[in-house]
Amino acid sequence: IPDPDPLRHETDARGWIRALREATGDLGLHGAGRLEAVVVSGNNPTLVPAAADGAPLANAITWMDRRGTEEARWIAGVRGCPTDASHFLPKALWLRRNRPQVYERARWFFSCPEYVVFMLTGTAATFLPTPLYTRSIMWDAETVRRLGMDDGRFPPFVASGARVGTVSAAGAPSAP
Q1: 116 with 23: CB under 8 angstroms?
Q2: Which tens digit of pLDDT belongs to each residue from 39-75?
Q3: Are the beta carbons of 94 and 7 closer than 8 angstroms?
């Protein structure tokens, strides 16, 4: 059934974890110590509102979603630079304004690869390709606060390529 809202583009983030578990199983990586390193990459800026344990509180809002157009204009005025509805802040602000129960329950706002990393390691982080992105594509604490949002819901920045953590017992592939 086609979505009646052409601006909405969502997906179930739990599917990414199921696919990862299936792939590690297909590669024979089940069992303690079998998985030594993982490089995670993905399409940004998809936004996953997640509980403290990583459980998605709603579908991930993909980079194609355009419902935050009004929020993007507001953010651009606050920042003094262009902001697109595909970026993180418009999506988070849209949630605060339109789905306040999801916003209030969210401990974290993750992108697709950051969500996968959190589920593998239990470490919340945001990959920052360049510091220039904080005022354009990503966010900065001052802007988040000026918008009336909680900057603690946005994981701290780490440089792309940084080691974020180790695969936890909860994140390790297990035998089917």
Answers
A1: no
A2: 888 767 899 999 999 999 999 999 999 999 999 999 9
A3: no
- Residue written as token pair 């780490």: 158
Distance CA 69, CA 19 (A): 31
| pLDDT per position as a tens digit, 91-105 | 999 999 999 999 999
Q: How far apart are CA 77 and CA 15, in angstroms?
A: 36
DSSP codes joined into one string, the chain: ---S-TT--EE-THHHHHHHHHHHHHTT--STT----------TT-BEEE-TT--BSS-EE-TT--TTHHHHHHHHHHHTS---TTSHHHHHHHHHHH-HHHHHH-SEEE-HHHHHHHHHHS---EEES-GGGGGTTS--HHHHHHTT--GGGSPPEEETT-------TTTS----
Copy the structure tokens of residue 175.
């035998």
Q: How far, in Å, CA of 168 to CA of 105, rounded?
A: 24
Residue recorded with tokens 């949002």: 149
pTM, to two decimals: 0.89
Residue 20 in tokens:
């990862």
